[in-house]
Amino acid sequence: MAGRGEPGFTRRGALRSLLGGSLLLPGVLTELLAADEDRRTPADPLRPKAPHFPARAKRVILLFMTGGVSHVDSFDFKPKLFADDGKSLGSVHPQGGKAPRTLMGPSWGFKRWGKSGLEVSDLFQNVARCADDLCVIRSLKTDHANHFEATLGMHSGSVTVARPSIGSWVSYGLGSFNRNMPSFILIAPELPYAGGLVSSSDFLPGDHRGTRVDPAAEPIPNMTRRLESPGLQERELGLVEAFNREYLRLRPGDGALGARLRSFESAFGMQREAPEVFDLTQESDATLRLYGLQRGSTKGFGWQCLVARRLAERGVRFIELVDVGADSNHNWDTHYDMARYGDLARNVDLPIAALLRDLKSRGMLEETLVVWTTEFGRTPFKETPDGKGRDHHPACFSSWLAGGGVKGGLAYGSTDEYGMQIAEAQVHVHDFHATILHLLGLDHTRLTYRYSGRDFRLTDVAGKVVGALLA
Amino acid sequence: MAAESHRPLHPGQAQERRLKPAPPADRRTLIRRATFDLTGLPPAPEEIDAFLADPSPRAFETLVERLLASRHYGERWGRHWLDVVRYADTSGCSADFPVPEAFRYRNYVIDAFNRDKPYDRFLREQIAGDLLPHASESEKVERLIATGYIAISRRFGTTPENYLHLTIEDTIENLGRALLGLGLGCARCHDHKFDPIPTEDYYALYGIFRSTRYSWGGYDNGPRRRDLVPLIPQEEADALRKEFEERKSVLEKELERVSGELKAARKEAPSAAAAKRAKELEAAVADAKQAHDRFVRNPPLIESAYAVAEGKAQEARVHVRGDPNKLGPEVPRGFLQVLGGPGVPAKARGSGRLELAEWLTDPRNPLTARVMVNRLWQHHFGKGLVATPNDFGRQGLPPTHPELLDYLAERFVEQGWSIKAMHRLIMNSSTYRLSGRDLPENLEVDPENALLWKFSRRRLDAEAVRDAILAASGELDRTMGGAHPFPPQSTWAFVQERPFAAAYETRRRSVYVMQPRIKMHPFFQILDGADPRSSTGARLVGHTPLQALFFMNDPFVHEQADRFADRLMGARPEPGGRVKLAFLLALGRPPRPEEERAALTHVREAQRDLKELPMPEERRLQLAWASLARALLSSHEFIFIE
């Protein structure tokens, strides 16, 4: 297929056909064609860059569960919490306070799965079948108990002011394989709590900002050419480019101008390639069944997962799937009734397992790092004594990695007997980020960007690679 | 004033580091910059000509005055305020009910900017307009509408009144961000971790809003709107409501009566006559029910505002860890202790909003003026002196020019909190009039232009892009916007699974486009519009392929390009004249000779590209000119201000 994994569409050809012997801005034309020669000059922020050291994974698919998934109901098995269901605790809440708290056992059992015997909740029976590929971290810690701040933290390492998102950092560090698609794509029916900030490139060049895809009739708005004549569109874009290159030539110091110029090239590539990416008609019935997807439907997480695989095949560097819940009003933020987890897990369990298996059977899992995460955990006790829900819990929570360079069938770190506090091997969000970058061949202390007089990085002044997770 | 006006507005700093400022901007650049800054619209060609021809050395000051007097000024700067107060036309609850009255508050804001309402009064009206004395009936109405600021706080869940504590949190959080540059929401559950805001302060404010009656816009499974504030005299509103209630009661009684008869008939011994009677009564019940329901769905249309009123005055108790079911000690109503905020005086009989409004706008309050002048600075220069305009606390960034910020805040209060006076002060400074030219030696020392040695180039925001496209095509409808074409209330059946969602097309200015709270209008999503779910202090600015695709393929752009082409062809018979006009309308300057040649070539070749396609010759010509128009609208020069 043209364009897959390489700049298949040659702008040179388009420019030639566009000119058809006539003259478009004499002088500028030469410049345009000359520019074509060195399209991957250092001036282009999206040119593929070598990692700092040999990478284990080439790309990331990040599955973000909005709302804060309870660790004790999903990947952190706490037998004593089952046993002590209903038991009252003193003032053990990490945020202090005197009110007694009532422990609440999970409504779902845990089983051991695979050769590794990894314990996974019955909520995720399909994902559990991939247990030997999962590298579960049970000792994650974040710095904030609010959705907005914690979501921002998981994406940018900062729980206060906005900073570039991890997808933007990866795009900045490694560039793009496919100039016909953005390097960082966010598939989100709705945005998570921190809104557009989760895909913000902030001070990094605008080329690295996440492009949002919405599972609607037209997943990327305006991706279909409206002008009937393709020749005229190319001619028109040539003129735009000529105008913009001239404007840029007189203002060489402004990076935003180059980013906007390239955004038209990417857009043209997307117009060419994106309709095919989102067209699932070529997928077999078996594949659609694997993802639990009705033919022709774009509903549910299955669509997001299958499209993610197709984007991965086409060289997109960082793909984030945002799960906003089984319906648009209920995500994993269950203050009032944990029973909702049944629907919430059903919505994602099969598609996530399908993605892992599909990547594996295509030989892509070993070079794709799949990350399953959320903004924080939930309290092992009830939020209110007579309630059925759990409150936010930043002190500890679980996530997992799979694929590209991680040890499968591993459960790393642990929490205390109820899942209240970390017992051993804390992994702070900064450490989590450092490890993800490491798997991509990037040293988090060297992936820096100079802004406002100092060097910034995703992990701020912290972060340690968790060596035990690496295969 | 004149002497001062040409002083650099950043005392000392640039000189200290010996940065040579960029040369002043030329007049063409200046009029485009100033017109977009103050009105959000491009200058018309004749306005440019007049400015270029003005021989007076004070021509720029005259220009600023003309722009400040334009009614489009309020539409621009009112929109900046609407960003901060997270204005939306829907409630934000799960079903996101329309709020057909919200536009009155929007128009109030626009009008306040146009009339240069002193900022302290502007704030007092928004917080306690219903409690302020008024000189006339129209002033009373205006001040009631102003409290829409509090009323537009977000609603939550399927039965929003059950989540009143979250709505009040949204009020307090926004009040903190918008007026004081402080995040107060954290203190709902625990003492603020970074700034000295104890939980008691949060609940001291909470008591004030708990003592306030909000308007309610709707529920799942039924409109059930209530406590909207009538804008007609209370007696008239009461009379209309009484009439409605009486008629409703008659219909209810009738329904009850026939239902009772039906029940009785069914108990009778079975017989043909009884069965017939029951059947007749069933029909009567159905009729009565239909008549009742139809009537109830259409309550009297009383012109109202989505606003607030006084509720039952009460102190709040701390919600332990933010849990409204777990009440801690009672906290007397009051303001923020760290800012020297006293309590609401015991003699105050009402909610305490009036006292809160006075305290917030007391010149001794150190934050109110500083936060606002920082916003004004930000919209003129692209970046505030405090780069985190909604966070002056420890989580934000420190001011780059603290003395300047203090100076501006003092001047603001001295000049009677006049926002237009601040525009004059800022825009007539030499700093504002610098060109955007890069000086390589400065770029090395200060690449972000923190020292303001040049004017920082910036992209038009979403509203300005849309308005400038409509202005260029000649399609802009400059009338002020009113209510939105929401479906009639009797048809509202919005629930969380099927929330209200719509995007209404209009040719009016973007500030009048209906803004849903949950599902943003696609255009504003693509072009980094404000997120109406929380306060937007500064817009994100990116250059994404989605924006490029918008210019390439969006139906709006194509339609406006066609209208632009019609305008060019209608105005000038010869191609050269059309190209000149196209450049003037889109970019505010005539084309350079090589650009004119390229544009003419483009139009000629475009017609050739279209030769194969079956269409009338006029359409081919129109498409060719539309293509040139689109190329101009897609250009850097169109979308960047410098």
Overall pLDDT of chain A: 87
List the total number of helices of chain A.
Answer: 12
Structural class of chain A: alpha/beta
What's the CATH H-level homologous superfamily of the largest domain in chain A? Alkaline Phosphatase, subunit A
Intertermini distance of chain A:
34 Å
* Protein chains sharing the most extensive interface: A-B, 76 and 78 residues
Oligomer: heterodimer
> How can the largest sheet of chain A be summarized?
9 strands, mixed
Note the total helix count of chain B.
Answer: 27
Give helix % range of chain A. Answer: 25-40%
What is the structural class of chain B? mainly alpha
Unreliable parts of chain B: 1-8, 11-15
CATH class identity of the largest domain in chain A: Alpha Beta
Task: Please provide the count of β strands of chain B.
Answer: 8
Average predicted local confidence, pLDDT of chain B: 90
CATH architectural grouping of the largest domain in chain A: 3-Layer(aba) Sandwich
Whole-angstrom Rg of chain B? 29 Å
Q: Based on DSSP secondary structure assignment, what is the total number of beta strands of chain A?
A: 19
- The CA-CA distance between the termini of chain B, in Å, is 26 Å
Determine the strand fraction of chain A and express it as a percent band: 15-25%
Descriptive account of the structure:
The complex is a heterodimer of chains A (471) and B (642). Mean pLDDT of chain A is 87; it is low at 1-42. The radius of gyration of chain A is 24 Å and the shape is globular. Chain A folds into two domains: 1-41 and 226-274, no CATH class; 48-219 and 278-469, Alkaline Phosphatase, subunit A. In chain A, α1 packs across α7 (230-249), α7 (230-249) runs antiparallel to α8 and α10 runs parallel beside α11 (341-361). Helix content of chain A is 30%, strand content 17%. The longest helix of chain A has 23 residues, at 255-277. Chain A is an alpha/beta fold and 471 residues long. With 642 residues, chain B is mainly alpha-helical. Chain B is built from 27 helices and eight strands. Chain B has helices at 2-5, 13-16, 27-39, 45-53, 59-69, 71-84, 102-114, 119-128, 137-146, 148-151, 164-180, 199-210, 234-267, 272-297, 353-360, 368-381, 402-414, 419-427, 440-445, 462-473, 522-526, 545-553, 555-571, 575-587, 593-609, 617-633, 636-639, and strands at residues 212-213, 229-230, 304-305, 309-310, 316-319, 327-331, 458-459, 640-641. The longest helix of chain B has 34 residues, at 234-267. Chains A and B meet through α7 and α8 of A and α21, α22, α25, α26 and α27 of B.
